[in-house]
Amino acid sequence: MNKNIVSDCQSLTDSFIVEFLVGLSNEFITDTKYSTYTLLHHIPVVYLKMRIKILYLFNIFIKNVLSDVDLSLPTGTSMLADAVRSIKSYIVYNTKVKLIITVLEETYRTDETQTIQLDSVKASTCSTYKDTIFYQAFRQLYKNASLSFRKLEHARVWAVTYIGMHSSDSGGPYRDSITAMCADICSTRLPLFILCPNGRTNSGLNRDRWIPNVFPPQTTIPNKIKNIYIFIGQLMGMAIRTKNLLNLQFPSLVWKPLVRQSITVEDIEAIDIQSFATINELEKRVKQTKTMNTSVTVDSEEKYTDNIDFLFDSIMSELKFDIVGSNMKTYELVPKGSIIPITVANHKEYCLKYREYHLQEFSRQVDYIRQGLYSVVPWPMLALYTPFELEEAVCGKPVIDIDLLKQQTEYKYENDHHNAPYIKRFWTVLKDKFDEEQKRLFLIFVWGRSTLPSRAEDFERKFSIQRLDAANDVDKMLPSTYDS
Question: How far apart are CA 465 and CA 477, in angstroms?
């Protein structure tokens, strides 16, 4: 094995790995073009190459044993399964994808494609969430989704008839329905998700992220809402299977539990910069009060008692055993918590309950989403995904890759090519002049989808650019769409 590790890169068979290694500088010190990678820029290239080769060989070994590991076993019941799950971030995506595709092909269904009817006029008025495109589709698809969504790559899971529009679904209306459903999910039109606190206050990171709606911790979430969350998970499973991607603006606190990773304080602060401000300030003041009294004399102990009592009786006197949730509503942390003051004796319990609430605030909602996801895609395969990989498998790349789209483009006119002047102008405008939202709107207009596949092989077909041969004044022509 050592001989292979230190041998020339020609001994490696994976073309991507070879291209990466060949592209590295031959200088002993890492080339300046890697200076943006703060953990790598100081490492000599010879060591980078060795690390890449070790990683490559590791993936060869792990690929040979993955099919024999039962990843469905609960944590703590199999040392081997636990070990594989713990190193999943070192397993390259292509290794995972090959195994996952095999399992998906073994579990697909050939059920007849269901045709659903959608009323876009009713959805445009949206007097109730039941008028939305999402809910119209949910009512017609939910009953058999766990089976009917198990389609092969690029398959259409349902066909769409738009009421009053006389549309023929050759793919465009289907993709348009998915885009409309995602737009409903990340909106206030449904009682499922709310804009995160950072978005509402226009502060901190992730201001465009949507989090599960908040329900009182002591009450049961209604079955109808529960089933809709399950359906969203089933849509995620459909996206993984068919590559019909979803535009869902969810933060890490949604994706991590879906691959059974625990969320952290940092995940909560990423969507609510003020989430722990109250208890952080409380603990800071208690600590400062203690450090001001380092002597062990009776006088200093009495002074400390006076200071700490003053802290809770005056500065912190308004605190009770309750909390303001992410929906700006107040919930009790313990029974009758709204009338229990925070004191020296119970402030540690208060801080503990406060953190527990924030870390568990969305656990039930995400658990229902996970149930739906696992009903369409076998859980053992998802155990190999990192949260970021799951998000990319469901939603595609977070940034629209115009270079990838260009690679997957064909030109219908015989004399057109990438270097034709008007074609070059088209790509320059799209790549350099459009912002991300404009690129997304462009995709929706020409393709009925708001995201791109992550890899070239995931494209169902080429993006097509065709000249318009107009008999009349071209500036008076209306846009035309073609779908095949």
Answer: 17
